[in-house]
């Protein structure tokens, strides 16, 4: 039962952090180190599976919008065509960089020390870029509808998304910062980040799952996979709506401060050899 208990903890961490600008991968690495759930083929497979659970939550929550854009696309309407082309354009940079650098990233960046660096750098960038955005957030040039995002703006968001390949930076934080730089409102940047996560994470997860030998999975591990998928899905379902509501009232700086505090705690744990 211990493996199932640990699996539930990691799934809750994934569901909470996947769409917040605090890095789900970074949290799973750090928490995994603390509870000794890292470093095995199963733990790597498990993390990929529960990420799919979290993505399913976005599909469910935004299904009406996704369905409308699919219908609009096949009707050759401008808003549907632009929406899906923007998703493709924003996906290209990370897809190219991911295919080129995936092995190097896995080998050298998936450890507690590099995650801590990502937490610190990402937190500082969040504060700096948000402060600059706040000076012009009421400008008429700021995009306030998903349908109004240009291809150039989508590409800028895609370039920023590449920062998320450094564990601890956060895909959500990177794309939201890219949205600010590109001239999107916080809400539009966040929602675009959600939609962009669907093809990016499904594609990346598919590539990762192809590497694993499912025939070697034990019965307890199969139960852990199923429970983890459901827990990650339900947790993300609760978090996403509340995150959007939070952003309409509070600045992103709150998450930046959290990142820096977490980094400080884990620097102490590394110094004390509690984690490596």
Descriptive notes:
The chain is mainly α. It has one domain. It is built from eleven helices and no strands. Helix 5 (78-108) runs parallel beside helix 7 (151-161) and helix 5 (78-108) crosses helix 9 (186-209). The protein is globular, with a radius of gyration of 18 Å.
* Tally of DSSP β-strands: 0
Q: Structural class of the helices, strands and pairings?
A: mainly alpha
Q: What is the general shape?
A: globular
Following the backbone from N to C, one meets helices and strands in this order, namely HHHHHHHHHHH
Report the portion of residues in β strands.
under 5%
Give the total of domains. Answer: 1
Radius of gyration: 18 Å
Helix content: over 70%
Uncertain runs are none
How many angstroms separate the termini?
26 Å
> So how many helices?
11
Mean pLDDT: 93
The main pleated sheet reads as:
none
Layout: helices, strands, pairs:
Blueprint (H helix, E strand, L loop, with lengths): L1 H16 L6 H12 L5 H21 L1 H12 L3 H31 L3 H23 L16 H11 L9 H12 L3 H24 L9 H29 L5 H19 L5
Organism: Clostridium putrefaciens
Family: Belongs to the UppP family.
GO molecular function: undecaprenyl-diphosphatase activity
């Amino acid at each position: 039962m211990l493996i199932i208990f640990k699996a539930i903890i990691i799934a809750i961490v994934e569901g909470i952090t996947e769409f917040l600008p605090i890095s789900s991968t970074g949290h799973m690495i750090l928490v995994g180190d603390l509870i000794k759930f890292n470093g095995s083929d199963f733990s790597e497979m498990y993390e990929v599976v529960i990420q799919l659970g979290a993505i399913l939550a976005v599909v469910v929550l935004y299904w009406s919008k996704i369905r409308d854009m699919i219908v609009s696309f096949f009707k050759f309407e401008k808003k549907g065509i632009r929406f899906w082309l923007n998703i493709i354009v924003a996906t290209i940079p990370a897809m190219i960089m991911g295919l080129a650098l995936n092995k190097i990233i896995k080998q050298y960046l998936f450890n507690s020390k590099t995650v801590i660096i990502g937490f610190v750098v990402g937190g500082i960038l969040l504060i700096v870029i948000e402060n600059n955005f706040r000076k012009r957030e009421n400008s008429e040039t700021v995009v306030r509808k998903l349908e109004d995002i240009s291809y150039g703006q989508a590409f800028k968001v895609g370039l920023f998304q590449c920062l998320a390949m450094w564990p601890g930076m956060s895909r959500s934080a990177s794309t939201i910062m890219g949205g600010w730089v590109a001239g999107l409102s916080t809400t539009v940047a966040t929602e675009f980040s959600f939609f962009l996560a669907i093809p990016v994470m499904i594609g990346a997860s598919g590539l990762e799952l192809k590497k694993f030998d499912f025939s070697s999975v034990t019965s307890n591990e199969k139960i852990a996979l199923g429970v983890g998928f459901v827990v990650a899905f339900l947790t993300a379902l609760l978090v996403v709506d509340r995150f959007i509501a939070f952003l309409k009232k509070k600045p992103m700086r709150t998450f930046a401060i959290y990142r820096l505090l977490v980094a400080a705690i884990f620097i102490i744990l590394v110094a004390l050899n509690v984690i490596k």
